[in-house]
Write a structure and sequence with these properties.
With 394 residues, the chain is α/β, with parallel strands linked by helices. It contains 13 helices and 14 strands. A 7-stranded mixed sheet has the order 2-8-7-6-5-3-4, sandwiched between helices. Strands 9-14-13 form a 3-stranded antiparallel sheet. Bound molecules: pyridoxal-5'-phosphate.
Length: 394
């Protein structure tokens, strides 16, 4: 069969690729610890599950409206008002099958061949592949480990030209767990405001998994309101990855156009998941706060444990549930007969020798790093680091 250029431009996600390899080894009976996936290990809180059961029992099993049930749109508008003092009407918000579909919808309606999308490093794996699918070109803006992965504002400015249609970033970030501060966001907002052809996609899916206090969003800058799309969802904050429910807010015409597109592809997101999300957004945030507390303890534990691994350079992430250490000090070295020259070599070595699955930094545009997810129980984290240490000090 011949497949389209469009799909041939898209690569398989290395995170999914790595976990498949880990699963295959597991199926062979190997005792694999996977620190490669981006999902909380907690179960969805009970009150949310109960809301889903009640929706099932009430027969909410028909096609929902393409852009989301009115009750969920209302809950989303209220959430923005309550938490960020932002006013959105239901016509300015939309519900999709995960934040992933929100982003894809926006890319497909804004980006076409010849267009450029500016993506600061390190970036979430899917951004550039979505740009590839849409036929656009990704332009990457470098970042440094030493600067805690802050966006290099002058490089960002230099990367923007008349062909730039979109800037996309996540804060808190996947993979580095870094946060953009108010000053950096203000500088980015200035660049956006000076380029009216530009839309900024602010991916705030890790908003609540923030160890520094209140989330700071670029949405506070009113002057870019007509050029801004905010992406969010229930996957990370409410341990609801499998429910596949995301949402976004943006200008009315943009939302209406995404609604048109989604209506021909997938229709409305799962109805039961939408009712569960109404409960998640309207209810008390205590279960989320508890999860965040555990993530913070695990982050601190991992930093302590990994300090004992010579050659691994670690910074202190401020949010999300990943570490993104620099591992390039191992490059050129031979470990147990294997020469390590890239983050992929490093991850393959660690998987084969330590039976621990990590994700190579190259998947996020920074080949000197690896991503370690600490969304796993403490005993697994301890065992994983002990094995990594043994494999690297052999
Ligand atoms: C930065 C970022 N954005 C979006 C998503 C997608 O989230 P969802 O599960 O809502 O599709 C992820 C998931 O890993 C992510 O890390």
């Amino acid at each position: 069969m011949n497949f389209t250029n469009r799909v041939n431009r898209v690569q398989e996600s290395l995170t999914i690729g790595m976990s498949r390899k880990a699963r295959e080894l597991k199926a062979e009976g190997k005792d694999i610890i996977s620190l490669s996936l981006g999902e909380p290990d907690f179960d969805t809180p009970d009150h949310i599950k109960k809301a889903a059961l009640a929706a099932l029992e009430a027969g909410k099993t028909k096609y929902p409206p393409v852009g989301g049930i009115p009750e969920l749109k209302k809950a989303i508008c209220e959430k923005f008002k309550r938490e960020s003092n932002l006013s959105f009407t239901p016509q300015e918000v939309m519900v999709c099958t995960g934040a992933k579909q929100c982003i894809m919808n926006v890319m497909l309606i804004l980006v076409q061949p010849g267009d450029e999308v500016v993506i600061p490093l390190p970036y979430w794996v899917s951004y550039s592949e979505m740009v590839n699918f849409a036929g656009g070109k990704s332009v990457f803006v470098p970042a440094k480990f030493e600067d805690e992965f802050a966006i290099d504002i002058s490089a960002l400015k230099a990367a923007v030209n008349n062909n730039t249609k979109v800037i996309i970033f996540s804060s808190p970030s996947n993979p580095a767990g870094s946060l953009l501060n108010k000053e950096q966001l203000s500088e980015i907002a200035d660049i956006v405001a000076m380029n009216p052809q530009l839309t900024i996609i602010s991916d705030e899916i890790y908003e609540h998994i923030n160890f520094e206090g209140k989330h700071i969003s670029i949405s506070q800058f009113e002057k870019i309101r007509n050029q801004l799309v905010i992406i969010n969802g229930v996957s990370k904050a409410f341990a609801m990855t499998g429910w596949r429910l995301g949402y976004m807010a943006g200008p009315k015409e943009l939302i209406a156009t995404c609604d048109k597109l989604q209506g021909q592809f997938t229709s409305g997101a799962n109805s039961i998941a939408q009712w569960a999300a109404v409960e998640a957004l309207n209810a008390d945030m205590k279960p989320t706060e508890k999860m965040v507390e555990v993530f913070k303890q695990r982050r601190d534990l991992m930093i302590e444990l990994l300090k004992e691994v010579p050659g691994m350079e670690i910074d202190v992430p401020k949010g999300a549930f990943y570490l993104f250490p620099r591992i390039s000090s191992f490059y050129g070295k031979m470990l147990n007969g294997v020469t390590i020259n890239s983050s992929l070599d490093f991850c393959n070595y660690i998987l084969d020798e330590a039976l621990v699955a990590l994700v190579p930094g190259v998947a996020f545009g920074m080949d000197d790093h690896v991503r370690i997810s600490y969304a796993s129980k403490e005993s697994d984290l301890r065992e994983a680091v002990s094995r990594i240490k043994k494999a690297l000090t052999q």
